[in-house]
Design brief:
The complex is a heterodimer of chains A (80) and B (551). Chain A has 80 residues and is mainly α. The radius of gyration of chain A is 18 Å and the shape is elongated. Chain A has 3 helices and no strands. Helix content of chain A is 41%, strand content 0%. Chain B has 551 residues and is an all-alpha fold. Helix content of chain B is 66%, strand content 1%. The longest helix of chain B is centred in the middle third of the chain and has 39 residues. Classes of the chains: A mainly alpha (80), B mainly alpha (551). The interface between A and B is large, with 39 and 43 residues. Chain A: Pfam families: DUF3311 (PF11755).
Chain lengths: 80, 551
């Protein structure tokens, strides 16, 4: 739903212009890891890790998943 | 006493010699027809693909000093040191689009440094000079700190001399070798060595996080040991969790450090060396693998607590060198040969960023000081030559920092470096999106931000160590008149002041119709990709004539 804007083929440059609603998703992994209320506690522990540590390490997965999703969704159409 | 560590020293030396050989061979790796061009020597041909970029930028951002200092911070203060994890998570989504724009506009116009971009965008050599000087000043102590990383390892192996020269001789030799192959191979050397460095580090850390908890009674008891230590200590700010007073500092430090990281010239050098926009975007998803590594390395600090490691004495009497806790932990827990591998990982880990940083600083000098002010008509070959020589001088300077000054001085300077590099944010990062700011206002904002940052850092003392100034980056909000014990990261406040001044003055200068120069870029430049035509011819690698071998 992001890509097929009709204006693109009129010019020779049909490349992605960085304007995609998917990009707003990038705010998620910027804001969430910076809210201590989520992770600043000991319990529950996971494999002996207090929540402070395992949850912050888990945000890495959030970051990777979001950037991968945005990349896939905003890729140039010709590349696929 | 070094005889007790003979196995470690032999393994360390062998691996070190291996990568040195690789560094020299790198000049022939993906060899260009003509190395005498800054695009080749300083940016590896602007042609690195996904894997090389991943190793190069990863090896560049996650430095040996990080691997030594972050666990040391966790060892000493607990949760606060874990800020490195959110810091290296939020950075990638933040710069995901920004770096693509920077790459595109640099590709189109042949920019080698961030200051090149600022020069052209805002039509202001003065602003570009400020950006270049800020970059060089922020990078120098960072290079020096890589030496601190190597020294912590050498110290643990007992390689210490009776006098200053003997003590520093191994580092001088290591840096001379590094300087020689960087001079010859340019950015290709760290790119090739990064493969070895990162493979070693990944192996060491995987073994450490599986084997050490098994030896130390499991993760649960490691955290419990750390908790017990911090509960017993009188310091108010430590603990395995944050307290009410340092949460703001934790968040602003993570966010501010993330803003600063990609303004450092060496990060930008790594990014500009990549082949196209896709390589950058894919790397923004893949680089967090290093953050996981960093998070696990950070926890080595708690393992050191559980293993009851006592750090070696520091440079001045009575002090301890907490940077030695990780090497000591390895020495104590691992068999000698594997400790040697771990030390080599840290030692080689210092070489990759040191090489890239010196290249980045040299490029800044060449492009934005030498070519701008000393020799306008410098040819590409002359530029490359000047950069090569400057990279040598930069390394000698960093070496002098460590040999003649207290290493603490470099640590202080690096702290300041993070704050000052942030002051280039409005011109470099926001400049990629908007030309709204007036060039004069950006200069004024830079001055205001610098002044504010310096003043705040000067005010920060640490009663525990007796340091009165520059003792940290946590500024007490009570100094601003708030009735609280909370602290905030200096860099954030300084850059906000910078932005406020730049915005206000832009309005004033626009109203007064002060000349604002001509924007040398077009909106379309920010989306250019591999294969698109370049404004400056750059290297003539596409020309057929250059393809003939010179006999």
């Amino acid at each position: 739903m992001a890509a097929p804007e009709p204006e693109a083929p009129t010019t020779a440059r049909s490349r992605a212009k960085d304007h995609s609603p998917w990009n707003w998703l990038l705010f998620l992994p910027i804001v969430v890891p910076l809210i201590p209320a989520f992770f600043n506690a000991d319990s529950p522990r996971l494999f002996g890790f207090p929540r402070f540590y395992w949850l912050q390490l888990a945000w890495i997965i959030l970051g990777v998943a979001t950037t991968t999703l945005v990349y896939q969704m905003t890729k140039k159409r010709g590349d696929r | 006493m070094w005889r007790d560590h003979l196995t470690e020293i032999i393994v360390f030396t062998l691996l070190f010699l291996l990568v040195s050989a690789m560094g020299f061979v790198a000049a022939r790796w993906r060899a260009p027809r003509d190395m005498a061009h800054l695009d080749e020597w300083g940016l590896g041909g602007r042609n690195f693909g996904g894997w090389i970029t991943w190793f190069l930028v990863g090896g560049d951002l996650y430095t040996a000093y990080t691997f030594v200092a972050v666990p040391a911070l966790i060892f000493g203060a607990g949760a606060m040191g874990f800020f490195a994890v959110p810091y290296t998570i939020v950075i990638y989504p933040m710069v995901f689009l920004v770096l693509c724009r920077l790459w595109s506009v640099s590709h189109r116009h042949g920019y080698v440094t961030p200051a090149d971009f600022v020069r052209n965008r805002f039509d202001s050599p003065i602003l570009a000079l400020l950006v270049a000087i800020t970059g060089i000043v922020a990078t120098m102590p960072y290079i020096a700190l890589q030496l601190v990383g190597i020294e912590s390892v050498l110290k643990t192996m007992g390689v210490t001399g009776d006098n200053a020269l003997a003590r520093h001789l191994p580092i001088i030799i290591a840096f001379a070798i590094l300087a020689a192959y960087t001079y010859q191979s340019g950015l290709r050397a760290p790119a090739l060595i990064a493969f070895v460095k990162d493979s070693l580090i990944y192996i060491v850390i995987l073994v450490a996080v599986i084997y050490l908890p098994y030896k130390l009674g499991g993760w649960g008891s490691i955290f419990d040991a750390a908790d017990a230590k911090f509960k017993a200590s009188p310091a108010p700010g430590d603990g395995i969790l944050l307290n009410a007073n340092n949460q703001l500092q934790y968040v602003t430090l993570a966010f501010g450090s993330a803003l600063a990281l990609f303004l450092y010239p060496h990060s930008i050098t790594g990014v500009l060396a990549s082949r196209n926009r896709d390589v950058i975007k894919r790397n923004m998803s893949a680089l967090p693998a290093y953050s996981l590594l960093l998070g696990l390395i950070a926890l080595l600090g708690y393992m050191a607590i559980a293993a009851k490691v006592k750090p070696l004495p520091g440079a001045s009497a009575g002090s301890v060198d907490s940077n030695t806790v990780v090497p000591l932990l390895f020495d104590q827990q691992f068999p000698d040969w594997f400790a040697g591998v771990a030390y080599a990982a840290i030692g080689i880990g210092a070489l990759v960023p040191a090489a890239i940083m010196s290249i980045a600083a040299a490029n800044l000098f060449t492009r934005n000081i030498y070519k701008e002010y000393l020799k306008r008509d410098a040819s590409p070959a002359q530029e490359a030559q000047i950069s090569k020589i400057t990279s040598l001088l930069v390394k000698v300077g960093a070496l002098a920092f460590i040999i003649f000054l207290d290493p603490q001085f470099s640590i202080d300077l690096q702290l300041i470096g993070g704050v000052i590099i942030l002051q280039t944010l409005p011109a470099v990062a926001l400049g990629l999106y908007t030309r709204w700011f007036h060039r004069g206002a950006l200069i004024a904002g830079w001055v205001a931000g610098m002044g504010m940052g310096m003043w705040m850092l000067y005010q920060i003392g640490n009663p525990a160590t007796g340091k009165k100034h520059f003792a940290g980056s946590a500024f007490p909000l009570s100094e601003f008149g708030f009735d609280t014990k909370k602290t905030i990261y200096v860099g954030i406040v300084a850059v906000l002041v910078n932005l406020a001044v730049a915005a206000l003055l832009t309005l004033v200068l626009r109203a007064a119709k002060v000349a604002d120069g001509v924007d040398g870029t077009t909106p379309d430049d920010y989306f250019a990709d591999e294969g698109d035509p370049r404004v400056t011819p750059g290297t003539e690698r596409d020309a057929d004539s250059a393809r003939e071998p010179v006999a």
